[in-house]
Structure formats: C-alpha cells, structure tokens
Amino acid sequence: MGLEKILSQDAHLKIIKFFNENPRSIDTITGISGWVGLTKEVTKKALKNLVKHAILIEHKTNTTKAYSYTQDKKILLKIKKWLKTSASVQ
Amino acid sequence: MTISNQKELFKSLIEHHSWRQEVESFSKLIGPAIWLVIPNPDNNNFDYRNYTLGNKEAAKTHARTINELIPKARKTRRPQKLTLANGKYVYCVPISRSGQMYCYLCLLNLKNQIAPDLLGMLYYFTCTTIESIQKDIELSKLYDTIRPKTIALSTVHTISRIIGSTLEINELLPRIARLTLQVLRARRCSIMLLDKQKKFLIPHATVDLANKSARQSSLRVGTGVPGHVVKSGKTIVRPQYMCVPLVAEEYIIGTISVSYRLDNKPFGIFDREILTTLAEQSVIAIKNAQLYDEQEKLTLNSIQALASILSSGAAEHFGRTSIFINLSMSIGMELKLRSDQMRILYYSSLLHNVSQMGMPQKILRKTTKLTGKDYKIIREQHLKGTQVIRPIGGRLKAVLPIIIYHHERYDGKGYPSGLRADDIPLGSRILAVADAFEAMLSKRPYRRKMSIAQAVSEIVKCSGEQFDPVIVDAFVRVIKRSRNKIFQGEKNAWVWKRF
Q: What are residue B103's DSSP bridge partners?
C-alpha cells in the first residue's frame, strides 16, 4: 500500500495529522483514540497498519503498547508534502 | 478585552448565524437600515468599517454622526437617537453587561423611529449573542492552550508506564534512550552510569539513528561533557547537544545526553525541560532496577549456597552436576523460554535434589536394585524434602512445583500426584529428561553407566510415555548441536546471566 492509499483512509489520515502536529507524542491506543476522536477498535486497526508501513513506531512491553511518530526523514518529508498539497487543494 | 480579542469577537458577531437572522428579522420590523457594530472607541486602532453589515461606504459618510452619538451613549449607557437633515433617523445602542462595554450598535438611515420595546429586544439579543461568542472564544482558547499540554502530559504518563514495566536494567536503559530520542526528536541518545568507585562514567545504552553500531567510551569523572556534568551537577545545553545529570536524591548516578535534532534546529528551553523530566523519571526506574538486580544476586547466592549444602549431604550420584544444569538450561533455550522462565528453571535445576534431604543413607548408598519398599520411602521422602524450601516463598514459590513434580511421567504413571501431559509443569518436564539422561550416564552400584548414544536412544524410546515428546525433540536437537558445551567440566557449568 502506497502512502497515498494509506492517507486516503480517514482513520489513517486523522492519526497521521495528530502525530504531524504532535511529533513528540507517545501514547497508547486509548490515548490516541481520544485525541483523534475515533473508536478504540478503529484506532487499533489503523495504528497496526501505520506501524506496518513504518509511519509509526510501536513501543511494546508486557503490559503496555504505545505508539510514536516515525523518525525516518524520507517518510516524514513525504507525509509533510502530501499534507501540504492536500491542504492547498482543499 | 484586548484588541485582538475584540477583533475576533466582532468578526464572529458579524458572521454569527443567529445574529444575522436577528438583523434580518428586525429589518422587517424597522425597515431598511445600515447596521454598524462599533467597538469601544477606547481602542483607537480599531477600524469599524471592517465590522459593518451592509454598505461600508455609507457607514463612512455617517462617521461624524456616529462620533457624536457614541460619547453620549457611553456616558448615559442608554440608546441615543438623532434625526438627520433628510428626516431619517440614526440610533446608537450601547451594548454592555455587568459594567463591561462590549460595543455600540448603530442603525443608520432609518425611515421610521424604533419603539422603545423593540430597542430593548435588540439590545437583549445582541448582548446574548456576544456573550455566547465570547464563551466560545474563551473555550476555544482554553482548548488550544490545554490540548498540547494534555498531550505532553499523556506522553509523560505513557513513558512512565513503558519504563516502569521492566526491572531488567539491561532492558530498561536502551528503552529509556529510545524513548528520549523519540520525544526530543533527536538522532542520538546516550546513558552513562557511574561505576561503583564513582570515578568513571560507563556507557550503558547508546542509540544512534544514523549509526546502529555506535558505541561510547568510558569517561573519567571531570572529563568530557558528561564527566563535567557529573562533577558540577549542572545541565549543559549546546545548540546540537544536551547533557543532564541523573540525580537520585542528593547523589548523581550518571548522565543522559542527546545530540542532533532531526530538524537540525538547536535545542531550546523546552527541550531542556523535557530531558530533565525524562531524567527524573528514569532515575526512579533505574534505582528500582538496580535494587531488583541486587536482590536478584542475593537470591541467587542464597540458592547456590542452599544447593551446595544439599549436594554435600547427598550421595555422590545424587548431587547436582554441571551436565544436568547445562542440559536443562539448553533445553529451556531451545524451547525459547522467556527470561523469567529461564531464571526459574535455573533455580529449579540447582535445587531439584532438595528432596534427597533426609533420605535414608541405606537407600542412597544401596548397592543392589531398589525394592518396592525402597521406592515407597523415596516417594514419601520426596514430598517431605521439598517442604524444606516451601517457607522461603517469594521467587522460590515458582520453583517449588517444578521440583515437586519432576518425577511425574508424561503418561501419568509418575509420582507424587500422577499428573499427566501438560498438567505437569513445563519446568518439571524439562528436568525429568535432564535428570534421567544424567542418571543414565552415571555409574550406579547396581548397574554400569551408559554411553551418550545409549542414553539418548533410551530417552527417545520413552518419548510420549515417560517424557514429553516436545521436550525430547528439543533435547535431541540440543545434544546434536551443543554436545561439547553440555559435557564441559564443572568449571564451565552454566552460570546465571540475564537471558
């Protein structure tokens, strides 16, 4: 799945926008679902996909699963460009 | 109210849906007019033309009239009326609540006068709309201020949960380093802890996004930036580098440093605050892990001492051997047991012959084959012996069932409880194979010792009956692959390290 396809999905886009605005954030599924206004189930699925595509990093322990934004410059740049373009189109 | 707030308020009022409806409804009642909302003229920089409903140029031409009416309205706090030369009317209604003047509502070019009741209603509606807008603006500002702080707080809380979920120092420190990089959006993080003599800073975790094999050298206190931070106890912030001391109560235990922000911007006050907060959180976790480590060593030493006492009291062929421990642990690793499971297996393998405590010497040293009566005594004594470690509790709680049930058989014909298959604890099933294998390789007064091949073959033969087939398969793989390692001498017996 390419970046455009990932970003075309509402849940993915909402989460990416959240991390783009708050790149220092590290949060759990419950926390993120609250910030982006999605159900936990939808958030969980979207987070899993975003980790799969290296857009998010998963921090997993025996008791906690948390997520943070990628530190890959190439991915960050691609996302930034995409968000900028989509904002100007809107 | 500040000018920017006022601008926002008036902009919102003019665009406000219900106020526009209100204007429309009143216009039907009072006839066509130029509607003008003018802020409190104390703010001289305010250009009211931008906040006019209707013809802005017409409003401009009435500026003198407005300027005449507003001071009167402000003074009396009551609506003011003026009749123009062309016979048309101008009204200026001061909109204020609880002593605070919001604005002036001016109606220009009216053909007819407005009834006082209607003016009162106009005042009331406008006031209510402004108050509602003001509340919305305040809420929005509050949200904008609180949201990033709440997100940051949530991050701190999540980090606390992540680093608090391990007590293994070797796992904890890289975890802290990775999280620090993430939160500070930096490229490199290093955690150094002081040695016991507090003379050197030893690097314990270095994470570098650009160089995965990055290492850091030890530093003498007082040398290098971290060394200076330890000596002075003060944070050092440079454009591309920050180093914060890790302070536990009044003692410095090490440093945490980050370098190179991903966006190449210099580190600032906010970054320093974050790193300090992370350092404070980390210190608690590090101290906990260090205490746990010390306790762990103490437990291990106690178990080793206990195992030595138990071995010294048993007949030679019942003592623990390096082969038994090496084999048990190798099977555990082959089965990819977790670190905590491996630790329990290690303790169990050290103490597995605790049941020999109090075993009659005539049985231990018997040169003829054991009788049914002997076996009965052994079974009874097995349970009694394991009671020795029961009061120790704590970590040995998990060890106890493994030792108690390691004479059970996979087919349920073992002792003490006749457990079968998966009802037998995994550790017991591993010890059973290792125990039998080791026994077969040992000489007994009533039989000769077997060769390795014969013993392996015997174990395989008993797979599914006496032994768990999964364990036997792992055992066979281990023997094939690591035979030399397992049969190393006592000097090379398995030494407990972190898994």
A: B39, B95
The 10s digit of each residue's pLDDT in B8-44 is 777 788 788 888 888 888 889 898 888 888 776 655 5
Phi, psi of A82 (to 5 degrees): -60, -45
| CATH 1.10.3210.10 domain locations along chain B | 314-492
d(CA B428, nearest CA chain A) in Å: 25
- Residue linked to tokens 């090379």: B492
Query: What is the rounded distance in angstroms from the CA atom of residue B232 to the CA atom of residue B255?
Result: 12
What pLDDT does residue B247 have? Answer: 94
Query: What is the ipTM score, two decimals?
Result: 0.91
Which positions in chain B have a beta carbon within 8 angstroms of at least one beta carbon in chain A?
A: 148, 151-152, 154-155, 158-159, 161-162, 165-166, 175, 178-179, 181-185, 187, 209, 262, 274
Q: Which domains, from first to last, does chain A contain?
A: 3-82 (1.10.10.10)
| Residue range(s) of every CATH 3.30.450.40 domain in chain B | 3-140, 169-291
Scan for tokens 């410095």, then name that residue: B252
Topology (CATH level 3) of domain B314-492: Hypothetical protein af1432 (1.10.3210)
* CATH number belonging to domain B3-140: 3.30.450.40
Report CB contact under 8 Å: A27, B184.
no
Which residues of chain B have a CB within 8 Å of the CB of A26? 155, 158-159, 162, 179, 182-183
Residue A88's φ and ψ, nearest 5 degrees, are -70, -30
Number of Cα atoms under 13 Å in the Cβ half of residue A59? 33
Which CATH architecture best describes the domain B169-291? 2-Layer Sandwich (3.30)
**What CA dihedral angle connects B162, B167, B172 and B175, to 10 degrees?**
-20
